[in-house]
Amino acid sequence: MVRRILWRLGGLVPLLFVISLLVFFIAQAGPADPVQDVQSQRMSAEQIAQIRAAYGLDLPAWQQYLNWVRDMVTHGGGISLSVRSPVSGIVFPAFVNTLILIAGATVLTVVLGVAIGFVSGIRHGRLIDRIVMLFVQVGSNLPIYWFGLIIIWLTAVRLKWLPAGGMHDLRGDGGTGDLLAHLIAPAFAASLVSMLIIARFVRAAVIESEQSDYIRTYRSQGFGRAAILGKHIGRNILAPIVNITGLTIGSVLTGVVFVETIFSWPGIGSVLLNAIAGADYPVIQSGILVVATSFVLVNLVTDVVLDLLNPRLRHGAA
């Protein structure tokens, strides 16, 4: 088992190298020029050339890439071209806010998705199963942007239960309760599609397990329904739940940009949108690399957990 984990960790090195190359050169291929756009109307050509030299923008692309990698390792990404401050001070605090949002969305995704799928699976073919599947079918096709606006209208405008946006109330104490109140609506919006995907997989796994031969054997031997559901079916669907959860965290990462924009959540999505508008390459490259690296690490953790849940690998490790 330890050897498998080390092998997977070793495989991350070439993968992260390829990701860093793609992130850097795709960002560089954009038509925008940050120095030319911002300073061209107020500075001479010589002054613009001096700014390019100061930020290393006049160097060959391969040398800029090496400098960027060096800055990522030693200084967290260099200096922002638009706000003239360290990239690490812009990207990492925003990414922590995004992680809080993703954590809330993941909890809702797993808890509600498993509950919906489990109830629908054990009531397969009945009225509640049909209602749940109709809800799953409709909800899976809702655009996140539109769904987020509906949540704001319902919870903040009509019912006045939750704040409309932001991460903290400027007049509040900024404590955990205030954060949770601001987190519920965007986390639910970010989790909807992933939650319904998990519900669909759990429902299918429960139906397949209930119709398997070994479950019929347990029933014939007099095992109670609660014991069969909790001990045997629940254990068998654990691996698919972990697998789908790892995949859905990636989809939440990609969809969280829209959610942060709608709910004014100060996360990495908002930072990237502002950086793209200002052609701030160091922030764009560092932000995307941080998100991509997180996605790779989530998949690694998912693979390790799946290996730990595999009895053959556990016995091999022992």
Automatic annotation (TrEMBL):
Q: Which GO terms describe its cellular component?
A: plasma membrane
Membrane-crossing residue ranges in chain numbering: 90-119, 131-159, 179-202, 241-263, 283-306
One Gene Ontology term of the biological-process aspect is: transmembrane transport
- CDD domains xrefs: TM_PBP2 (cd06261)
* Keywords noted in UniProt: Cell membrane, Membrane, Transmembrane, Transmembrane helix, Transport
Task: Tell me, in one coarse class, where this protein mainly resides.
Answer: membrane
The UniProt family comment states: Belongs to the binding-protein-dependent transport system permease family.
The keyword Disulfide bond is annotated on this UniProt entry:
no
Protein name in the entry: Peptide/nickel transport system permease protein
Ranges for the ABC transmembrane type-1 domain?
95-302
* Matches recorded under PANTHER family: DIPEPTIDE TRANSPORT SYSTEM PERMEASE PROTEIN DPPB-RELATED
Q: How does it sit in the membrane?
A: Multi-pass membrane protein
**Is Signal one of the keywords UniProt gives this record?**
no
Domain of life where this protein originates: Bacteria
- Report the subcellular localization: Cell membrane
Task: Say which species the protein is native to.
Answer: Amycolatopsis sulphurea
